[in-house]
Amino acid sequence: MQELTQTETPYTALGFYHKISQLRADTWNALKRDLGQLVRLEDEGRAKNLIKAVDVKLTRLEIIEDYHAFPSKEDFRHLWALFDRAEYGLLEKVVKRLVRALISESYRRRQVDLSETDADAEDLETLDALTQLRRGHPASSSSAQPYFELLIVDNLSAPEEEVVREAFHSMRRPEDRFVYDVVTVRSFEDALIAVLVNPNIQACLIRYEFPYKSKYNLSALRSYLEGISEQSLEQKSEAERSILLSSMIHELRPEIDQFLVTSGDVEATASRDIRHFNRIFYRETDYIEQHHTILRAIDNRYRTPFFDALREYSKKPTGVFHAMPISRGKSITRSHWAGQMIDFYGINIFLAETSATSGGLDSLLQPYGPIKKAQEYAARAFGARQTFFVTNGTSTANKIVVQALVKPRDIVLIDRDCHKSHHYGMVLAGAHVSYLDSYPLDDYSMYGAVPLHEIKKTLLGYKRSGQLHKVKMLLLTNCTFDGVVYNVRRVMEECLAIKPDLVFLWDEAWFAFAGFNPTYRPRTAMHAARTLRDRYRSESYREEYEAWKAEFDALDPDDDATWLERRLMPDPDTVRIRSYATHSTHKTLTSLRQGSMIHIWDQDYRQKVEAPFHEAYMTHTSTSPNYQIIASLDVGRMQAEMEGFELVHAQVEAALSLREQLYTHPLLQKYFRVLINKDMVPLEYRESGVETFYDPVTGWNKMEEAWANDEFVVDPSRITIAIGATGIDGDTFKNEYLMNKYGIQINKTSRNTVLFMTNIGTSRGAIAYLLDVLIKLAKEFEYRWEESSRPERKIIENRVHSLTCELPPLPDFSRFHDAFRPVADSQTPEGDIRRAYFLSYDEENTEYLRFDNGELQAQMRDGRDVVSASFVIPYPPGFPVLVPGQVVSEEILYFLQALDVTEIHGYRPELGLLVFTEEALADPPLG
């Protein structure tokens, strides 16, 4: 076998890790198929081609398996030996066993010796595979020891690698809570690629000296290795090189526990900035201490404090003289009629049902025990300073944060198309609301996100009017329902340059998973907050800021272009990082419905927020929270820490596979067009110029560039498909075609689009089923056209034209009526939504006006300001087109008239829109 060098790498996709696990599985299966054909082939010419194909696949797999513990390097030497001796029949048997072991994941539970070729060994693998299939998933066995892999970074020879591997194997004990195997790599680059392509790696031991370069072409690392060269690395000491590698591993996979082994001055090394190392070991031979330290570190992440406490509670015999007859399942087990609940749910859910907050349990309202510990673990996992569990959804989480931070008459900048909970939160808080408009995507009846230019311009307006001190919060949705993601760090940085104490609330309801992927993570609120805090504390930033400030001060500060047309930098002496994020954990990670979290990174939390936050939390949190939801949040956090990287990786892989098929299948392209970057993000917000993450020739190779630089990017796990060419609107397509005919559930539609979302539970089989359904539907539309009469074809053409060409432009926010503005002639746009909301409670202040018969339009032509007295929310798009106190514009009326949806909250077709009477607006009560 030839040594594979950097220039000889046969498969460039290895340089892009996004689809590596599918590449790995598919290549092993293809190798097994080729060997099966080779063994049974008699044609010498075809045999030569198959031998060459087997050689290529083995070479490709050896690269991938270099970063995995199974199959080991010794296993691969065995495979190559069989290949070189042309023992293809035996090689086929060994590969079959290996593939079965990978599919069944039996290597996680016992040693798999590929040199064994007897029937008993094969039967054992087959039995293992069948057992796991019957269970439904390899992880379903709670009695099995969880398995992980330990990465060792050291420039070892092949014999030395085997010695180290065997040394750690010999440390295993039956009583260990976990079982692990060892992966060894020899270079700086190889260590980084290992943590990217191998999700089983949970711990890393960095030892001694190691070179910088890998022998493979690792193009996926380019964005991570900017500013680092082989020469600069070689000039660093052993400790400096190890610390740099550790910091980069932490940036890619912060959950990995890291340990340093040094033979140098261990005391001097310990005095350096080694914050990412759990512990330093002196010399490598102390395997017993290393073994137990590694297991203890893994156990620290694996613990689920509240779930464990709840399980223990469920086993205790108790006498319940408290609320809840269903506690311990008593009202069900004693029933002659309600027993089907136990048949359906099982007994444990009832044994764990209680109102108790003692006896090993805890109070969500004032936690001191396992809930407190579970929330601390969640803060660690999501990179927050504080985390709070919420058991009644992110709608409530949003209201808690707003009430804790916003006082009546504080000004809040908020994206107009945000979730309705924020609008109602503004009502409850009594905020003066300044709505920001997102850029519209009129062709698809959806909005994008709020441009930074728009945010800065609004802040400058308040600065010019002398009201900047009243602006308390900027509230934005990241990412949007349709997958548009902000450059969170840049938004925070430039806004803080204008108002250094601005509070940010990032609604990340659909983005909880993002913290567990190295591409997504930098665009999360918690990561951006930590990064900016560290940046502003550094001397290098202070020097950069001083240079920027000198240049900025030479310009005209009264010219808006000075602020709007260049990147701004905040003063490190005045800036405060105050960032909040709300997560619908149940939407994108493992949790029961309504399980949500509030994450906080606020430098002023202790001094200014802790007490009001506690009061707001008490206001909105039930005194009888569901313990099952809390337990699921605890388990969901643990799962995210232990395998979130792997699960999100698989989620993105599934989405990329689906997109690839939709991009390239001729029939699917005819009726279903996947929206790409350039469709959803206008060019002025794409600094990279990247139009799509996928190219038919080069594959998926531009995602990191866009995510690193662009103002907005599109989450590839959200697949928005334009269906206008079918002649069927989104709501009908969702209900009548996808759900009723094929049982496919989706959440979001617009007039001419449907949104498919992959998540951590999406399997390759589910992707295959969806593609099969879409192909069947495309064929159905083909047959419909072929078999239609001329008049019927005209009807179809009219529908297609309506859905692709006759789309009403999305209206911007009009304005608040002067009656609901703090200062009627102010140049700033804020309004008192609370005053308008409660003014409508008195019937004499409101009336209904219909616009379907022209009544409302006639009033507007006569000069009347028609003002909405309620929220008007059409589904889709699912956000308020009108809010209380907002003036109805012609654009809004046109949009409402053009909508062909049946569900519009706040609108009664038989009566019309609820609006304020002119008398009520003449003298509204003061707020």
From TrEMBL:
Record domain Orn/Lys/Arg decarboxylases family 1 pyridoxal-P attachment site: where: 304-529, 580-764
Gene3D superfamilies on file: Orn/Lys/Arg decarboxylase, C-terminal domain, Type I PLP-dependent aspartate aminotransferase-like (Major domain)
InterPro entries, per the entry: LL-DAP_aminotransferase (IPR050881), Orn/Lys/Arg_deCO2ase_major_dom (IPR000310), PyrdxlP-dep_Trfase (IPR015424), PyrdxlP-dep_Trfase_major (IPR015421)
Cofactor entry: pyridoxal 5'-phosphate
Keywords recorded for this protein, A-Z: Aminotransferase, Transferase
Pfam families in the cross-refs: OKR_DC_1
SUPFAM superfamilies hit by this protein: PLP-dependent transferases
Signal peptide location: none
The protein's name: Ornithine decarboxylase
Lineage: Bacteria, Pseudomonadati, Pseudomonadota, Gammaproteobacteria, Oceanospirillales
